[in-house]
Amino acid sequence: MSRVADEPVEDQAIAWHLAVEREDFADWEGFVAWLEADPRHNAAYEAVADADADLARLSDLAPDRSTSRERQAANDEGSSPWRAGRLGALAATVALAVFGSWIAYGGFDSRYVVTTPAGETRTLALADGTRIALNGATELVLDRRDPRFAELKSGEAKFSVVHDAAEPFELTVGNQKIVDVGTVFNVRKSATVLRVEVAEGAVRYEGGDVRLRLNAGDTLQASGNDIIEGSRPVEAIGSWTQGRLVYRDQPLVEVVADLSRARGVSIELGPNLADQTFTGVIQLDGDAETVRKRLAELLGLRVAVTSDGWSISK
């Protein structure tokens, strides 16, 4: 399915969505190529699909005012008056959905969840130009009506925020908040610890009565009421987006958690290794066996294959 390059992205997304739903659709390679050509394509396509689903729900609630002759003609042609007008309805609503001002009908929730399984990453482009890279095993909540909001439920994400002093971007993590001040920052959330690292610009951390400004190179680790401030080379912050993990005196338990998220493999640490530290760079490219051997050499430890992943021991 060919597309004119200078057509609006939302029009391309509508056309692909309608094409993919046809039973005889076969251009999957072309569809995938279009999705991968520009990060905006994926965001636009998801907005179209969401808008279509909402419109379909509305059609189910609306009374059918078509005449018996129109219904018969629709049945004969395998379509419906609703279906026939669907392209126009999508075209009228998708621009609102793509640019974050989709009006909720009948109390539809404008928030939606984006998840990645362990071992897979994903990049999103928001309507305001902000880009979010999601690491594996991550759950993020976004809002179609408010591109300046996000909530990290779990996992890790790197945010490249388009700054707007009048309407700052806010990331919620539990009962804590990170507010941008013109920023590229990385956030990692586990069951017990929140870690914020700023690669560019600055953020304001808000947690309870605590208000802290973090500038480029600053890091913050929050666990309960304990907050530890530190620093890190900016080139190491969010380095997983370039296919590598960079560490300086980091506990192995954190290294293992990062590897599990990035590669999608379960890793068990042997006794007395959790607090052992590691300094170095782990490249993530290659197959699982290549990464396993590379890890063993870097750590100077035994990394063995088990029935459900890897085990690290002396």
Give the secondary structure arrangement, pairings included.
Elements: H1 9-20, H2 28-37, H3 39-61, H4 68-77, H5 81-84, H6 86-98, E1 111-116, E2 122-125, E3 131-134, E4 138-143, E5 149-160, E6 170-173, E7 176-180, E8 184-189, E9 194-200, E10 202-207, E11 210-215, E12 218-223, E13 226-231, E14 244-251, H7 252-263, E15 266-269, E16 277-283, H8 288-299, E17 302-306, E18 309-313
Parallel strand pairs: 5-6, 15-18
Antiparallel strand pairs: 1-4, 2-3, 3-5, 4-5, 5-8, 6-7, 7-10, 8-9, 9-12, 10-11, 12-13, 14-16, 17-18
Short structural summary:
This protein has helices at residues 9-20, 28-37, 39-61, 68-77, 81-84, 86-98, 252-263, 288-299, and strands spanning 111-116, 122-125, 131-134, 138-143, 149-160, 170-173, 176-180, 184-189, 194-200, 202-207, 210-215, 218-223, 226-231, 244-251, 266-269, 277-283, 302-306, 309-313. It has 314 residues and is of the alpha+beta class.
Please explain how this structure is put together.
Strands 1, 2, 3, 4, 5, 6, 7, 8, 9, 10, 11, 12 and 13 form a 13-stranded mixed sheet that branches. By secondary structure, the protein is of the alpha+beta class. It has eight helices and 18 strands. The chain folds into three domains: 9-98, no CATH class; 111-234, Jelly Rolls, CATH 2.60.120; 243-313, Phage tail protein beta-alpha-beta fold (3-Layer(bab) Sandwich). It has helices at 9-20, 28-37, 39-61, 68-77, 81-84, 86-98, 252-263, 288-299, and strands spanning 111-116, 122-125, 131-134, 138-143, 149-160, 170-173, 176-180, 184-189, 194-200, 202-207, 210-215, 218-223, 226-231, 244-251, 266-269, 277-283, 302-306, 309-313. A hairpin with a 2-residue loop joins strand 12 (218-223) and strand 13. The N and C termini lie far apart (56 Å).
